[in-house]
Specification:
376 residues; alpha+beta; Dna Ligase, domain 1; D-amino Acid Aminotransferase, Chain A, domain 1; Rossmann fold; 3 domains; 6-stranded mixed β-sheet; 12 helices; 36% helix; binds guanosine-5'-diphosphate; binds manganese (II) ion
Length: 376
């Protein structure tokens, strides 16, 4: 996932890299207030997950709060490279003395990382690389060793950066590794008139496999609306709520999908589906059944298990356990086949619960579940 500049900037700050003071807003009036708080002058920057904002008119220097409000009004709602601008960052302006480029990128082919750095930052690095390839240094970074003091010094030398940028390089490496990023890019990293090194722009791509550690920013993990889905997720179950009346539990996505079809073919609609997965234990079955039974839309439940890795007697044990724990009031149709099916059926026969029915085939089971859903 690509982060917005203001998010990247926050990570930089958390790892000790200097960034300009700034606030984000979606309102021109608030942009004016922010500029006032920053001392009057401000840079107003479109927050979009793409580069080249400067050239596209997405960055404006405002001489006073009223100008910041006008700039925000002009920039908000515009389109930059296909990205609609919904927020702007209002930042304290920085007096730039020189602009540098530094980045770490994952180099999949090399099985490592690559530090790319140049003393000629500010413009698109691809243009610098095309016009003057010798001005862009590429230094491989071993992912295990990382950017040590020596490695940082090597990058600084190769790119002709001021020696003090070595410290920034080490901190940006910590951003990359501690935040599970695949890309960290600062363009420009600037030396200010007062001699400070400040990250004036930031691009960070987080590894999507690590988004669970970044819930504050992962817009793909919107909170679950449905309380049953949330409860199921909390128990590690794959559960999706639908709108019909037959609750469907199966093992394996393929089997569950075809069970949904067979239920539909029997004249009923699936109320939900729950995949207990391969190798499901009695406990998973018990958890799954109690989730499905607590859905008020469910009028009958179809448990369709083909035992492969999963042993049917373990599934039957789970059903019996769930019967004792949740005291169902809805009929449950069970079809067990495959690994230890006979033992599983015997377990259910032994329990002889009045609401539990067994069926020999998936079609029979679906027809029975549909019929029970309509009469219960
Ligand atoms: P990009 O165009 O999306 O890469 O946006 P940047 O944040 O990198 O800004 C583009 C250019 O605007 C920078 O290279 C700077 O030259 C200029 N710029 C951005 N912020 C400031 C600032 O605070 N002061 C000054 N003087 N220039 C700035
Ligand atoms: Mn930039």
């Amino acid at each position: 996932m690509d982060l917005y500049e203001h998010q990247a900037r926050q990570l930089f700050a958390e790892h000790g890299v200097l960034v300009p003071k700034a606030e984000v807003t979606d309102s021109p009036a608030e942009a004016r207030d922010i500029a006032r708080r920053l001392g009057g002058r401000a840079v107003v920057k479109a927050q979009v997950r793409t580069g080249g904002r400067g050239r596209a008119g997405g960055i404006r220097l405002a001489e006073d709060p009223a100008a910041a409000e006008r700039a925000a009004r002009d920039i908000l709602g515009t389109d930059i490279g296909g990205h609609r601008v919904r927020t702007v960052m209002v930042a304290e302006p920085v007096a730039i003395e020189s602009e540098f480029y530094v980045s770490y990128v994952l180099d999949r082919a090399a099985g490592g990382f690559l530090a790319i750095a140049s003393a000629e930052g500010g413009t698109e690095i691809e243009e610098v690389a095309a016009a003057r390839p010798e001005a862009v240094a590429r230094v491989p970074v071993d992912p295990v060793e990382g950017v040590t003091e020596d490695k940082a010094a090597e990058i600084v030398r190769a790119a002709g950066l001021p020696p003090r940028t070595a410290g920034v390089l080490e901190r940006l490496w910590r951003v990359l590794t501690r935040e599970d990023a695949l890309l960290v890019e600062v363009n420009p990293l600037v030396r200010t008139a007062r001699g400070q090194l400040v990250a004036l722009d930031g691009k960070v791509t987080l590894d999507d496999n690590a988004l669970f550690r970044h819930v504050r920013w992962s817009d793909r993990q919107a909170p679950r609306e449905d309380p049953l889905e949330a409860a199921a997720a909390a128990r590690g179950l794959n559960y999706v709520r639908l709108e019909g009346e037959v609750g469907v539990i199966g093992n394996g996505a393929g089997l569950v999908m075809s069970t949904l079809d067979v239920v539909a073919g029997s004249g009923a609609r699936p109320a939900d589906f729950l995949d207990i997965g391969g190798g499901a234990s009695a406990r998973v079955m018990a958890d799954g059944l109690s989730v499905v039974l607590s859905d008020p839309g469910v009028r009958s439940v179809l448990v369709n298990v083909f035992g492969g890795i999963t042993a049917c007697d373990a599934v039957a044990d789970g059903i019996v356990r769930a019967l004792d724990a949740v005291r169902p009031t809805k009929p449950i149709v069970v079809r067990l086949d495959g690994n230890n099916a006979a033992r599983g059926r015997a377990v259910l026969d032994g329990r002889a619960h009045p609401l539990v029915h067994q069926a020999a085939t998936m079609d029979d089971a679906a027809r029975l579940a549909a019929r029970l859903a309509h009469i219960s």
